[in-house]
Write a structure and sequence with these properties.
Blueprint: H1 11-87, H2 92-105, H3 108-125, H4 134-155, H5 161-185, H6 188-209
Helix pairs in contact: 1-2, 1-3, 1-4, 1-5, 1-6, 3-4, 4-5
Length: 210
């Protein structure tokens, strides 16, 4: 009979195969971990961006509302001065100029300009809109257009008294209508933030009066 020679298994090859398998598994786990980590990071960043956007749109809508009211008060005062000058047969241009100089000294016009500049910058930041806030942004943009026109009239009244009153009354009506539309379209999270900003703004106004 022929003698059968058994070749012992190559232990080195088995060790190498085991090492390769371990390395492949570790590499695969690292890749999966990296992908999952990146996805979670992107989700966190998106949520953070949405939160920042919600805060900004709430703050801007409140600032715009209060600035519109303050501009409306100035506009109403212009109308009174204008009408009284005509009734008393005074030079209404001179009376308007004097009144404008007085409120300018008090910083009222400069405050309106600063408010407008801040809101303008906020509106630029709000252009990159998450889709769930798109409807709110569209209404706020329309509101912004009306607001800027009222600020313009508070800084420099134009036209005749009748034209000025008609124009500013129309702007007030448009703003009120669009304000209601905004309150309907904004999501619940922005509405809560907006209420908080309104409370803070009212407290700020009271402190300034004291």
């Amino acid at each position: 009979m022929e003698e059968v020679i058994e070749i012992p298994p190559n232990r080195d090859n088995k060790k190498k195969q085991t090492k390769v398998a371990i390395i492949l598994i570790i590499t695969l786990l690292l890749i999966i971990g990296g992908v999952v980590g990146w996805i979670k990071y992107k989700q966190v960043q998106q949520e953070k961006k949405k939160e920042e956007y919600a805060n900004l749109i709430a703050e801007t809508s409140v600032e715009m509302y209060f600035e519109f009211l303050l501009s409306s008060l100035i506009v109403s005062s212009y109308s009174d001065v204008w009408r009284n000058a005509i009734d008393n047969r005074n030079d209404f241009n001179e009376k308007l100029r004097d009144f404008r100089d007085d409120i300018s000294k008090d910083g009222l016009l400069e405050d309106r300009e600063k408010g407008r500049d801040k809101i303008r910058e906020n509106m630029k930041l709000l252009q990159d809109t998450p889709k769930e806030y798109l409807d709110s942004y569209i209404v706020l943009k329309q509101l912004y257009g009306v607001y800027t026109k009222m600020v313009d009239q508070s800084l420099s009244p134009t036209g005749s008294l009748i034209e000025f009153n008609r124009k500013t009354n129309d702007l007030a009506s448009q703003f009120e209508q669009q304000q209601e539309e905004l309150l309907i379209t904004i999501p619940a999270d922005i509405k809560k933030l907006r209420e908080k900003y309104e409370e803070d703004k009212k407290k700020e106004e009271k402190e300034e009066k004291l």
